[in-house]
User: What shape does this take?
Amino acid sequence: MIVIEKLTKNFGPIAAVSDIDLVVAKGEVLGFLGPNGAGKSTTMKMIAGYLTPSAGRVSICGHDVETDTIRAQSNLGYLPEGAPAYGDMTPRQFLAFIAEVRGFRGADAKKRAADAAAITELESVLEQPIETLSKGFKRRVGFAQAILHDPPVLVMDEPTDGLDPNQKHSVRDLIHAMAAEKAIIISTHLLEEVEAVCTRAVIIDRGRIVADGTPASLLARSRHHNAVTLSLPVDQVAAAKAALQAQPGISSVEEVARHDGIATLTAYPRATDLIIENVSALAASQHWDVKELYAEAGRLDDVFRALTTSDAQRARERAGVVA
Amino acid sequence: MRQVLAIFKREFAAYFATPVAYVFIVIFLLAMGAFTFYVGHFYDNGVANLSVFFGYHPWLYLFLVPAVGMRLWAEERRLGTMELLLTLPIPIWASVLGKFLAAWAFTGVALALTFPIWITVNYLGNPDNGAIAASYIGSFLMAGGYLAISAAISATTNNQVIAFVVSVLVCFLFTISGAPLVLDFFQAWAPIVLVNTISSFSFLTHFQAISSGVIDLRDLIYFGSLIALFLTVNVVLVDLKKTS
Assistant: This one.
C-alpha cells in the first residue's frame, strides 16, 4: 500500500532523510520512532505530498505521490504534526469542508462527517469554534478529518501527543479497530505506544533506518530482555548476589534499589536464556524471603538509546564538522 | 471546479467569521466617503458624475486591497494549515483560484456597498449611468489586479505584515507607472515607445480608459492577463514551498 524507495531529503547541506526504503502492507501498524529531529516528520510530509523529495519516490496504492499527487492523496488520510485545522470554523463546518473537497456530496457528505465525528467523540463540541477547543478535542478534529473518507492508507504524525491517558487510550483503540483494513504509519516518541498499538517498529536516527522489526524483536535486543528482578530483605542481599552470580546462565547481578529494608536485584542472562526458573528454584532452595520476582520482556528505551543520538549530540557533531 | 467552489466558500466565510470583514468594510466606506466629499469636494464641483469618487479608487485600493489579500497564504503558513491544505486531494491551482475569487468577491461586496453614492448622484442630477456602470466594472477589475499581486506576495511569507508592506510597494509601482509624475520624467528623453510601454503597465491608464465610459477589449485583456499572470506566479510560489 505504501512503497517508499530510496527516499532522500536535503535541506541545504543538511541531510534530513537519507535513502529510506520501506514497504507497508495492509494490516500493518508501523510505529515510526526516533529522537526529535531524526527525520520522522520530514518523511511523513514527503509521504503526504507536502514536501517534494530531493531523491527517491513514494507511492500510495500504486500512485506516485510526486507525479500522480491527487490520486495518491485521495487514498491517504493524513494527520499533520500538531493537528492543524481552521480555527475560525466549528468541527461541523470543518468536517463538511473536508467532505466536500474529498468529493462527497449531499447526504453522503453529511453522513461521512457525522460518522467521523461520532467515531472520534466530537458530538459535544460540534458547534464550537475549533480555536476554543482543548488540545484533546483539537487532536480529535484532526483525527476525524484524516479518517473521514475511510482511506486505505493512514499516516499520523504524533496522534497522541498532548493527550491525557484516557484520550490516548481511546485513540489507540481507534487505531486498533481500523488496523486490519488499512496500512497505518504513526510516528511517536512514546515507546509504550509502540508496544500498545504497533505490529512493526522502525527506528530512525539522523535520517536513516537503524532498526526495523516487530516490537517483540526489538525488545529482544534490550539488555533487559529476559532479565529477572527480585526484591528481598537487605540482610539476605549479599548471599543472594553471590549465589546468583555463581549461576552459569547469569552474566551479572546489579542492585538497582534499596529502601525500607528491602533491596531489589536485577540479574541479567548470559545469552538470551530464560533464567527465571533457575532464579526462582534457587530462591526456594535458599529460603530467601522473596517479596517480588519477575522476568522482563525487555525495555524499548534501552534499544532506543543504544541506537539513536540525542539532538544536542548531533548539534555538537555538526559544529565540530564546521570548525 | 467543485474544489474551487469548496475553497471559495471556506475562504469567503472566513472573512465574515471574524470582525475583520466588518471593520474592513466600514473603513473602506468611510475612506471612500471622506475622500469623495472632503478631499474631492464632491458637492462643490457641481457636476453630476462620479469621476471624483472613482478617481480615488486606485489610491485607496493601494492600501485596502493588500489588507484583504495579505492573510490568504501567510496565515495558512503561520498556522500550519498549509500542510493540511496541500495534502488534501486539491490541485494547487484550485486552491489559488478559490482563495483569489473569495477575496475578490469580498472586495466586490465592499465596492457594491458604495451604492448610496450612486443613488445620491442620481437624486442630484442626471448622470451618465452607463459611464458609472463601466467605472464600477473597471474598479472591480482593478481591485482584482491588486488582489492577484497581493495574494502571490502573501504566498512568499508567513508574516502578514511583511506580505502587506511588500504588496503595497509592488502595487504602488503598478499604479504609479502611468502617473504624470513618472511619465513626465521619461517623456523628456525616452522614445515614445518606451513611454507608452511604461504607461501601458499602469492600472491608472487602463482604469481611466474604462471609467471614461468606454469598455475597450484591450483594457479588459490587460486586467485579465495581469490577474492570470499573478495567479500563475502564485501557483508556482506555492509549489516551490514544497521543494524548500
About this structure: The radius of gyration of chain A is 24 Å.
